[in-house]
Each structure stands twice: as C-alpha cells, then as structure tokens.
Design brief:
alpha/beta; globular; 6-stranded antiparallel sheet; Rossmann fold; Elongation Factor Tu (Ef-tu), domain 3; Ubiquitin-like (UB roll); 18% helix
Amino acid sequence: MTHQIALNFEDGVTRFIDCKPTETVADAAYRQSINVPIDCRDGACGTCTCFVEAGEFTMGEYIEDALSQAAAAEGYALSCQMYPKSDCVLRIPASSEVCKTRQANFSATISEVRQLSASTLSLTLHGEALNKLAFLPGQYANLQVPGSDQHRAYSFSSMPRDGSVSFLIRNVPGGLMSGFLRERAQVGDSMVLAGPLGSFYLRDIRRPVLMLAGGTGLAPFLAMLAKVVAAGGSAHPIHLIYGVNSDTDLVEVDKLAAFADALPNFTYALVVVSPDSTRPRKGYVTQHIDAAQLNDGDVDIYLCGPPPMVEAVTQTMRERAIHPASFHYEKFAAA
C-alpha cells in the first residue's frame, strides 16, 4: 500500500509522488528523483520544513530547534521525519527547478468540443498519457493552441476518468484558443497540456464552505464537487453561488442539480446580472451572500472569476467585517 503525496512548489508547479507508510516523504521524493530541500536527514536542522495542507501523518524523532511545538501545531512538518498515514498535500518552500523537477507535459487528442452557450465552450481531451495525470481539484493546466507556440491556462472542469479530462473555455471574440475550437478543431486533433499548476484547490473540508463562481470560473468547482462525491460527501455544508451576465450564459446547470442530488449538504444558487433575466436572483454574486453562509467568519471561501468579481467580493468581506477562516481565489482574464 502506498499513499499519494502532492508536492506544491513555490512556482505553482505540482508533482505527485507515491510514498510507502514505512518511508519518509523526503526519501520517497528522492527515490522518484525530486530533490526536496534537505540537509541532515536526522530531524536536526529544519531545512526540510514544509507545510501540510491536508492529510494525516506521524513524525519520527526530531529536536525542538528543527521544529518547534508551536510550528508543529500550526501544521508544519519535517519531510525527513514525516511518515504518511493517508494521501497528503504539502507546500514545499522552494521552486520546482531548485528541486530538480519540472512541469509535466501530456499529449492528448480532442475527443469532443461542444458549444454550451454563446459565451462558453466545452473541451474534452483523451489520451493514454492522461491515465498518469494527477491533480488537485481546482488546479489548471496550460494548453498549447494547435498550430501555434501559444499557450492558454484553463481550470480542469472534471477529475481524470478513463484517460479523459474536460475544460470550460470562454468564447472570446478573436480569441486564439476559442477561435481554433470554433472554426478548425476536429475530433482526433492532437493537443499538449502542461500541468497541473496553481494553488487554487480544495483543501480538507473542516467547516462550512462557500464557493463563488463567475462565468467559466465554474469549471474548478465542478472538479471539486466531483471529488467530494467520490470521497463520500461532506459533513459540513457547501454552498455555491454561480453568477453570469445573462440567462443564456448559464451552463452545466444539470451537473449542479446532479451534485445536489448526490450531496445532501450541497446547495447552489444561480445569479444573473441582466434585469431581463427570468431567474429569481438578479444582480451580482455579492448581493446574494447570506449571513448564514458566512457563519460569522467560520467558513472557507473559494472564489474563481474575473478580477472585478474578486475585488468586489474582497470589498464586501471588508464592509461586512467578515474574516473567513480561509479565502482562496483564482482570477482569470481573456488573453
């Protein structure tokens, strides 16, 4: 039996390693040619200190000078003395280049392109190489636009399954990627993706969760919710507010309904800016955040949307004097 350990580096690159319960994370990393920072290997220097974002583990022997009790209580650990008891996510205080590893590239082919609305495209890629792809729900990949040397970043909108992954693509007038998908893409066309990347991903759910999505910012939440379903649900409430400009911009609502059926603690609300909307909730996402969902600040907030939305939510939290337990966000803008 092995555990999967996600190593998140300072430059946004994430690499996954397998670690046996009887070996330390540092030894497992070196066995798989990833040189995480380390010096003594004896729990004496503190060079290998990392932050454990998620997962259970035990520690071997170490001295107080290497890791204080206060730091250990906050979630820090020494990778040279850390023995995993479950899958874990670690934040490594070094770049992937320093650790002698690099962003992974995967070759795939287009298996489906769908126009979900005038503003949104769905892209599904398939390939044998993708069976080796692992990422944290919420992360993104850089996709190379076929026929060019340009890349565009998109969040995964599904977890890997049978060698396939999906993305939601904003349909941008004159956009390089969206133009290719609309006008030239064919099933079987080759595409290269690099990743996973990013620090926006679902952490362990230890309190109520509020998810705020704007437009194609819905994508990472679809992957997150799929992961929650696969994990058997959540003991804490999860509420998603999904905002768009017009009724026709709403996509994947059937998937949200399916998640609500599968997860008793999951609810969602659709918000449309246009005053002509037939939906009951009109305006902006910030106007539909209830006090109960903020839980007096004992809440983890995840936000993915365009920069003005991120700024508006941040301002709303200040005005309402809410200091969430954690606030994770991903901004995106058309290239």
